[in-house]
Amino acid sequence: MTDAQALCGMLDALCPMHVVLSPTGHVRHAGPTLQKLRPDGPMEGRRFLEVVEFTRPRQVRGMDDLMAAAGIRLHLRLRDAPPTALKGVLVPVPGGEGAIMNLSFGISILEGVRDYALSSADFAATDLAVEMLYLVEAKSAAMEASRKLNLRLRGAMIAAEEQAFTDTLTGLKNRRAVEHILPRLIEGGGPFAVLQADLDFFKQVNDERGHAAGDAVLQRVAGILVEETRGSDCVARIGGDEFVVIFGEVDARARLARIAERIIARIETPIPFDGQVCRISISIGIALSEETRPLCMAEILADADAALYACKRRGRACFAFFEPEMRPDGM
């Protein structure tokens, strides 16, 4: 091994971003980290000023200008993309054999690490950049851990909120969800409708077939209500065999009547359970926001309930829209 090779090996270990220049300004040797910045082609043999351009001092045209700037802080950047900014200090090699320039990223180290996927192994062990990299890595690890924790917490919060608004037997919304949604619709000012339903002969199913049959019936009814409504509508079970459907942006009586008729027809179809069938029907009362005065949650629910019980008095298995005379006080 020649003395020059031994010197380059030591420089590679002590300052891996150095460059050894010939008296003509050509690259004799580039440190491994510096070469890593441009892995597509070796720097050796190239004119150094073809690889970099100086931003301070600007009047660097050749080796003489470089030698005149020996010992002062130099600012330069790589010519091709990405045009990474560097800082350096040049010292002449004794006997006019050229010069050695040690380079660093300076305050742009984080950009350099990002652009070139550098690690602590690409810097001298005593370089303060190593400590900065450790801090950056520690911060990145902490931020990633925090991000994952926040995602888990958010997921748990969403799950808890969903559970709080969900009926566990049917998977429908519950009364709490209705009490959350209705005030928002009222505040929004758009038209909406509330359908309140109650199953007919459900108690008979529970008494004759047992609660397991009753649960199966409730789940089947829930499925029909979901199938006959839109994904944007709120379908809720608010009691044992009581259901509420909230139709947003709907106030057409004809459309609501068709939906009610389909629901009634489908629920009258016998529901099989454990080798037998369960027979029920449904009564439906409907209230429109445009016709509810004063418009508030309690009032529109009371109107829908009044229409529902008007159906019960008519013989069940039917639907009715609320009319003022249906109120208990007749007003």
From TrEMBL:
- Give a Pfam family name: GGDEF
List the SMART domains hit by this protein, alphabetically: GGDEF
Question: Which parts of the sequence belong to the GGDEF domain?
Answer: 190-324
CDD domains, per the entry: GGDEF
What sections of the protein cross the membrane? none
Give the organism's phylogenetic lineage. Answer: Bacteria, Pseudomonadati, Pseudomonadota, Alphaproteobacteria, Rhodobacterales
InterPro entries (alphabetical):
DGC-Regulatory_Protein, GGDEF_dom, HNOB_dom_associated_sf, Nucleotide_cyclase, Rev_trsase/Diguanyl_cyclase
PROSITE patterns per UniProt: GGDEF (PS50887)
Can you name this protein? Diguanylate cyclase (GGDEF) domain-containing protein
